[in-house]
């Protein structure tokens, strides 16, 4: 009785397995004499990193239509004896080289990975460098001439709305948003503007600041002080940095191994786009 049950169950499993296999070998698309199976379509989906179990019928249909479109035009191009140009072949070769390099680097990092210990040691060596920068939410009024700037500054001192005056007078795109410059770190603006903007206190308005863009009046709406970023916040950033260092070190070793010699003096004779 047990043996009979075993063979029945085994038979059922084989039928199910074969049924699934047969289903995947059925032609889902036919274009002339060519047939494309369910398996072919699934492999195409895999290459796009799509999983059909997360897609509804309508989405599957649209993706299948795109699959058909691609195969149809490829068939038509082959029948029309269309060839890939020499320039396109060069681009394909470049792409192959890029993949080859990426795979080599991936292999190196897999064989000699950056360890968790190395990442933590790098962070602990100088945690201060992983602080966020001070940010300021700024607003400005900008006009072409100094006399106009003086008039506006007088109005501000009498209690006029900064936003309204910016909307009425600004000569840049911030006119549409009341002079709002958004959040900014140091290093974004020209020195004359930045020196004043980052010396003001929260809520404080500057005098007239001249730059090559015009005459500004600056206000600081908010200040976000520097914050210490935790190890978990910067772990991947540090790991990528250490991996980059590892690859740069490898590059130097490879240059010695392959006796790389470069004559930079010949750069002057190089012609581009000829």
Give your account of this protein's structure.
By secondary structure, this protein is α+β, with helices and mostly antiparallel strands. The protein has helices spanning 2-24, 38-47, 57-79, 86-111, 116-125, 146-157, 162-169, 191-197, 231-257; strands at residues 27-31, 34-37, 135-143, 180-184, 205-211, 214-224. β1 (27-31) and β2 (34-37) form a beta hairpin. The model is unreliable at 1-17 (pLDDT under 50).
Care to give the gist of this entry?
The protein is α+β, with helices and mostly antiparallel strands. The chain is 53% helix and 15% strand.
Q: Spans with pLDDT under 50 lasting ≥5 residues?
A: 1-17
What string gives the helices and strands in order? HEEHHHHEHHEHEEH
Shape: extended
CATH arch. level architecture of the domain at 133-224: Roll
Rg from alpha-carbon coordinates:
33 Å
Major β-sheet strand ordering: 4-3-6-5
Terminal CA distance: 85 Å
* CATH class identity of the domain at 133-224: Alpha Beta
Report on the biggest sheet.
4 strands, antiparallel
- Tally of DSSP helical segments: 9
Structural class: alpha+beta
CATH topology of the domain at 133-224: Chitinase A, domain 3
How much of the sequence lies in strands comes to 5-15%
Instruction: Tell me, rounded to a whole number, the average pLDDT.
Output: 89
**DSSP strand count:** 6
Residue share in helices?
A: 40-55%
List keywords for this structure.
two-stranded antiparallel sheet, disordered N terminus, Chitinase A, domain 3, alpha+beta, extended, 274 residues, 4-stranded antiparallel beta sheet
């Amino acid at each position: 009785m047990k043996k009979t049950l075993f063979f029945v169950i085994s038979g059922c499993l084989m039928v199910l397995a074969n049924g699934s296999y047969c289903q995947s070998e059925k032609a889902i698309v036919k274009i002339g004499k060519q047939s494309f199976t369910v398996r072919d379509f699934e492999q195409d989906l895999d290459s796009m990193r799509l999983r059909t179990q997360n897609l509804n019928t309508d989405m599957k249909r649209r993706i299948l239509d795109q699959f058909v479109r691609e195969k149809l035009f490829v068939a038509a191009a082959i029948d029309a004896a269309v060839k890939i140009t020499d320039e396109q072949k060069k681009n394909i070769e470049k792409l192959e080289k890029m993949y080859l390099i990426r795979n080599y680097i991936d292999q190196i990092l897999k064989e000699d990975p950056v360890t968790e210990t190395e990442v933590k040691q790098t962070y602990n060596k100088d945690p201060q460098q992983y602080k966020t920068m001070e940010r300021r939410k700024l607003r400005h009024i900008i006009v072409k001439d100094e006399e106009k700037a003086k008039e506006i500054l007088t109005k501000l001192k009498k209690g006029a709305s900064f936003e309204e005056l910016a909307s009425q007078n600004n000569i840049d795109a911030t006119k549409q948003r009341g002079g709002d410059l958004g959040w900014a770190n140091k290093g974004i603006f020209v020195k004359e503007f930045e020196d004043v903007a980052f010396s003001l206190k929260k809520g404080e308005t500057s005098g007239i600041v001249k730059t090559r863009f015009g005459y500004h009046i600056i206000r600081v709406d908010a200040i976000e002080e520097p914050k210490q970023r935790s190890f978990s916040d910067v772990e991947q950033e540090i790991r990528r940095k250490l991996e980059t260092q590892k690859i740069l070190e490898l590059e130097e070793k490879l240059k010695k191994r392959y006796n790389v010699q470069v004559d930079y003096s010949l750069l002057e004779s190089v012609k581009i786009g000829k």
